[in-house]
Amino acid sequence: MAGRLLVEQGHRVVLHARSAARAESTQVALPQVETVLIGDLSTLAAMRNVADQANESGRFDAVIHNVGIGYREPNRVQSGDGLSQLWAVNVLAPYVLTALIHKPNRLVYLSSGMHTGGDPSLDDLQWSRRPWNGSQAYADTKLHDVLLAFGVARCWPDVLSNALTPGWVPTRMGGPGAPDDIEQGHLTQAWLAVSEEQAARVTGGYFYHRRRRDVHPAAQDAKLQKRLLDYCHEVSGIALA
Questions:
Q1: What confidence tens digit (pLDDT) does each residue in 171-228 have?
Q2: Which of 139, 154, 198, 240 has the most neighbouring CB atoms within 10 Å?
Q3: Which of 162, 166, 165, 240 is nearest to 204 (CA)?
Q4: Nearest to residue 78, comparing CAs of 66, 87, 65, 90?
Q5: CA-based max dimension of the chain
Q6: Mean pLDDT of all residues belonging to the chain
Q7: Which H or E element spans position 225?
Q8: Burial bucket for residue 172 (CB in 10 Å: 0-12, 13-18, 19+)
Q9: Which residues contact 56 (CB under 8 A, 6 or more apart)?
């Protein structure tokens, strides 16, 4: 929906899909897109490959990081790199893509209102010691996404880096009983990516329906931001230059 809106506004859009089959169905649904990058972002090798594909397209004006696994995972699934797959997709993938894709003018990270219940200790990020709790693990990753957005804003003052919640909308991830309006869910990410309104041309903000919202207090902690960035660097071997 965000891609369709941006195309309708006259922007050139590149999308991403997990598999060739999904990429084909995406291009059928939105044939105006420039291309669809393909890769299952649960492994470092795929993250690197998708970043290479993106860079072959040239430098982007904006990148929206919206890849994600939801909060209903019944078990801890281990990625091919030995990480929690939920954390790898939701947190490490946007970090690696941020570090490897040519620096854009704007970065947008999808978080969730559930980030307020995230654990700010940054302890046992891979859930290798704790009993698995899918809802808590998801909330943790969404807090990490805000830390990532704010950490990048601090490290790259020449880039507008923000996070948002699309609301609890009735997607396959959100479920049919989700109370928010799905017609509103995509608007903020597109707005942050391209709008010239002063309210959108900021950095280090957290938004809901194009308005700044309060964020977990820990997300503003520069030391926590650095700890997460350092951990992602350690795990991936990729530095945020």
A1: 666 566 655 656 777 999 999 999 999 999 999 999 999 999 999 999 999 999 999 9
A2: 139
A3: 162
A4: 87
A5: 49
A6: 94
A7: helix 222-236
A8: exposed
A9: none
Contact by Cβ (8 Å): 193, 6: yes
Radius of gyration of the chain from Cα atoms? Answer: 17
CB 143 within 8 A of CB 125: no
Give me the sheet containing 211-212, strands edge to edge: 62-65, 106-110, 160-164, 206-208, 211-212
168 close to 174: Cβ distance less than 8 angstroms: yes
Going through 6-92 in order, the beta strands assigned E by DSSP cover: 14-17, 35-38, 62-65
- Taking alpha carbons only, the member of 69, 63, 67, 61 closest to residue 98 is 63
Q: Report d(CA 207, CA 154) in Å as an integer.
A: 17
53-73: per-residue pLDDT in tens? Answer: 999 999 999 999 999 999 889
Give the list of residues 6+ apart from residue 218 with CB closer than 8 angstroms, or none.
118, 120, 143, 147, 224
Give the type of residue at 182: I
Task: Please tell me the distance from the alpha carbon of residue 137 to that of residue 76, in angstroms, as a whole number.
Answer: 9
Catalytic residues, by residue number, are 138, 142
